[in-house]
């Protein structure tokens, strides 16, 4: 059966310089200041049970030993913006101050972007516009900030953002996830990212609309898994560690924000050479920032108190 998706040529081998990537070659010297490279893929609003039950490609890599998986527990409130801020700063919402989606501002804490830049790395983001507002500038200007390349930025060098303006129950306003995965890959090839993040709200929006015990959500998770799968080997062959996780879960009615396990717990898949904890370990979301920085060889901010879960 022919796939409905086309992903271009075969991946370059690890350590090679893509022939079509002048930007990649231009940044090679700067990139070499980092020990390693890593991509963080955040699939918004996927509860632990959906990852483990419905993502056959990810689970197949776990079964084959090419990936490892743990349960991850989000901060409270388990609401999207608060989790985004905590994922990147390594501190709780009670400390960084983002208490929900209606309270978005330029954060004052050091974060993954700033620390990678301090270590000489190149950063990129293909995400909802909240990430740009938290870590680069606020408010978000639709024309100026939808796409930028700022090599001298202290945080995000290469940003490609979407706002989901007009989002509602009957119109998700979410981009195609293949387009997002391809855009991140494009940034890796053109600019030699040391650290890149991708965030998509597709499954979170589907959960709010259809809830979870339904064919619509089963199919949405299946399609997400199928669309993501071809990119993971390509990123790995480009030399990246890859983490796939969610910001939070959702309960049966598509709700999150509280401390119920369905709302707060998700899965974390890791593709890379580092050693991890026992499979039964529950990872604290605050561990993500220091773990990523430690893996990259970037300085860990003094405010990031949680320990790394990879060694």
From TrEMBL:
Domain of life the protein comes from: Bacteria
SUPFAM superfamilies from the UniProt entry: Alkaline phosphatase-like
Region Disordered, residue ranges: 1-26
Family annotation (Pfam families): Phosphodiest
Record protein name field: Type I phosphodiesterase/nucleotide pyrophosphatase family protein
Organism: Ruegeria pomeroyi (strain ATCC 700808 / DSM 15171 / DSS-3)
Lineage: Bacteria, Pseudomonadati, Pseudomonadota, Alphaproteobacteria, Rhodobacterales
């Amino acid at each position: 059966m022919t796939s409905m998706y086309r992903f271009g040529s075969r991946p370059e081998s690890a350590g090679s310089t893509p022939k079509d990537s002048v930007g990649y070659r231009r940044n090679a010297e700067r990139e070499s200041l980092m020990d390693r490279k890593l991509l963080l893929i955040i699939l918004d609003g996927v509860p632990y049970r959906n990852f483990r039950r419905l993502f056959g490609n990810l689970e197949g890599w776990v079964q084959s030993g090419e990936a490892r998986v743990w349960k991850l527990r989000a901060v409270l409130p388990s609401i999207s913006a608060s989790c985004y801020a905590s994922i990147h700063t390594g501190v709780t919402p009670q400390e960084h101050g983002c208490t929900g989606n209606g309270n978005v501002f330029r954060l004052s804490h050091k974060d993954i972007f700033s620390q990678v830049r301090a270590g000489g790395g190149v950063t990129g983001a293909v995400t909802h516009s909240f990430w740009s507002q938290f870590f680069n500038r606020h408010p978000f200007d639709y024309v100026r900030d939808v796409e930028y390349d700022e090599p001298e930025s202290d945080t995000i060098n290469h940003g490609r953002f979407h706002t989901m303006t007009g989002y509602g129950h009957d119109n998700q306003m979410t981009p195609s996830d293949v387009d997002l995965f391809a855009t991140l890959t494009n940034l890796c090839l053109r600019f030699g990212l040391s650290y890149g993040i991708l965030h998509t709200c597709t499954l979170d929006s589907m959960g709010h609309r259809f809830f979870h015990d339904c064919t619509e959500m089963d199919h949405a998770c299946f399609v997400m898994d199928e669309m993501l799968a071809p990119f993971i080997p390509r990123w790995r062959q480009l030399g990246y560690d890859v983490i796939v996780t969610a910001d939070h879960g959702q309960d049966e009615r598509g709700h999150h924000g509280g401390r119920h396990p369905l709302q707060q717990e998700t899965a974390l898949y890791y593709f890379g050479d580092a050693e991890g904890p026992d499979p039964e370990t529950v990872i604290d979301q605050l561990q993500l920032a220091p773990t990523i920085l430690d893996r990259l060889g970037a300085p860990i901010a003094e405010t990031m108190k949680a320990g790394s879960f990879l060694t």
